[in-house]
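User: quick one
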Amino acid sequence: MTTTPLRKDAARNWDRIVAVARSLVDQGIPLQLNDVARRAELGVGTVYRHFATTEALLETVATPCLEALVAHGEQALADTDPGRALEAFLTRTVEAQVTDASLAPVTAAPADALPHTTELKKSLWSTGSALLDRARTAGVVRTDVASADLVPLMCGIAYAVDVHSGGSTDRIDTAHRYLATLLGGLRAAPPRP
Amino acid sequence: MTTTPLRKDAARNWDRIVAVARSLVDQGIPLQLNDVARRAELGVGTVYRHFATTEALLETVATPCLEALVAHGEQALADTDPGRALEAFLTRTVEAQVTDASLAPVTAAPADALPHTTELKKSLWSTGSALLDRARTAGVVRTDVASADLVPLMCGIAYAVDVHSGGSTDRIDTAHRYLATLLGGLRAAPPRP
Amino acid sequence: MTTTPLRKDAARNWDRIVAVARSLVDQGIPLQLNDVARRAELGVGTVYRHFATTEALLETVATPCLEALVAHGEQALADTDPGRALEAFLTRTVEAQVTDASLAPVTAAPADALPHTTELKKSLWSTGSALLDRARTAGVVRTDVASADLVPLMCGIAYAVDVHSGGSTDRIDTAHRYLATLLGGLRAAPPRP
Amino acid sequence: MTTTPLRKDAARNWDRIVAVARSLVDQGIPLQLNDVARRAELGVGTVYRHFATTEALLETVATPCLEALVAHGEQALADTDPGRALEAFLTRTVEAQVTDASLAPVTAAPADALPHTTELKKSLWSTGSALLDRARTAGVVRTDVASADLVPLMCGIAYAVDVHSGGSTDRIDTAHRYLATLLGGLRAAPPRP
DNA sequence: CATGAATGAGCCTTCATTCAT
DNA sequence: AATGAATGAAGGCTCATTCAT
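Assistant: Done. Structure below.
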């Protein structure tokens, strides 16, 4: 886990790049390394040195948020009510997806640019998996939803929110509503025979 | 509604263009009018004459499927069981989205290139709306899902299916499973207080 | 000079084409035969049959105006005051150039598309020539301006008016002012030795 | 006013581009950035990096000439004979317009691509304005020609020269003759009542 | 390490002209 | 004669990536 520490100036550049990328993501402007370089007042080469691809940069931008989700997931595991724990985890996940535009593409991508991203995603997946198993064992969720479905379903909700609100308002409310519906479905009895 | 019928040769080219576009869509290759022209062995100008924009071509590709959905929707309205009718309609819609890659972008697009597409989408929306109202009146669906949510939710499920299966098998099965969960949620009582 | 008379429908098409072209010229829209065809609700082929090139069409549009100028020039020749005659002729010419956008390009073009245009231009040129000679003989104009300069100078004034008024107002007033200045120069004594 | 100096290689390319453009202008070939790139044996991107638009390149080509005119204008202001000063200024301006094909379009353009061009044009305009005012005050020019007319009139003369000589000889002689006529007109008394 | 100029494939779009119907 | 579909060269512009400085 230990990376060679960057020289001080290199670290400053790294920070600037990530900060610029973050602000672009927040404004919904697609990441382009040239563009990032210009806004960070750095050479393109510098940006390429730090981030070989757009995806690598995007994953770096998403990392803090992913880490927070992982942390929250571990807290959720401590909750003794299996249903409530799962619900809290999913709620937090969807809120993040809807709030932070860097998350959806990283989560949905089949391959990762950074090993660290892969770890975080695995970690998140296994936490979700554990929460779901526990809930299933406790009999509070239907049996035909597998742990491999959690991420897709969260992404699906986030996407549905995007489709719903062409632009601005209500995104979180809508997300909550959609998640509530889905959770209702998760809790419900298995499909009719 | 009466359009001047195309000359025989023009009609043949129109067909070729749409066929090429269809096959590109099916292979997941993004539509580009130049590319379509090359593959159809036609001049670019010919393609532009028939389809002013990529979107117009994509909508044309999607049209038959949309029309089938509309037709099916009208049949569903004839079903006397409100819950079953809604379920059948949504099932069919999701199956289509997951099967035909031209559908998702057209459905999710805020603006249409072809008036006909707009009509079809309106028609689909009002059918869905009617089915949902009837089901709500019959008390078989929760009250906090509005008709404006149907399209987003269907798109969301299709997207979730994409995320789940990197592109290969099971797509329809997965879609059924996700829809079943959602339907379970729709049927369930409103969220806990 | 006698051309085979057109069939009645052909003549109607000819008229429509010219009318459309006229209106385009008046709106400052560049002539394009495809565009003309569409607006005239005729096939491109028909337009090409009547007018082999854009220039031919433009010259046709300009023809009535050129003819009127020629006619006016002949009247001017009847005026017994050589200075007044020349002035009237030039004034009328400049007014036409500034008023009718079809004139400038046709007048300035080194080669003509239609023989008739060539005749009209020659005719105009010889009228101007005659008027200038008479005025020079009468001693009311400087001697270093030749008849071959009249057309360029008129075009120059029209162009100056275009440069002056980016768009709309005052065009005729400006033209009169510029012409008055030029006429002052024509009347003035030859350049200092 | 201080611009970061270009790297040596970049400067060489800049020069090549401008040189190619200059030669194209001199041959009367319309500027096209792709074409310039090919002839300069550079990538298109390089040309676009240096000159965002055709106009920017054209203005750059015209700049030295404009600067020379500005410099000459300032010298003219030092001449104590108002009439002679104005005449010298206008003569030089027209000579430039007729000699250098890059000038006319830049001078006549309502908007500029480069701020520097705007400055030069303003500067030129105000010099002309000052010279004209002085001459008018001294009573050596008619009163109905305003400073806003100088540029149009110079452009008009250049244009007249173009119309006169299909492209070959005598251009400067012709320009002198036309300017002499115009100056005669400027000196003359106001138009008859 | 940092820089940022250079590259050029690739995409988009228009329009004058031809020719089968 | 009239039609208008087809053509495709031509021009415009962007952007991910490399590499000399």
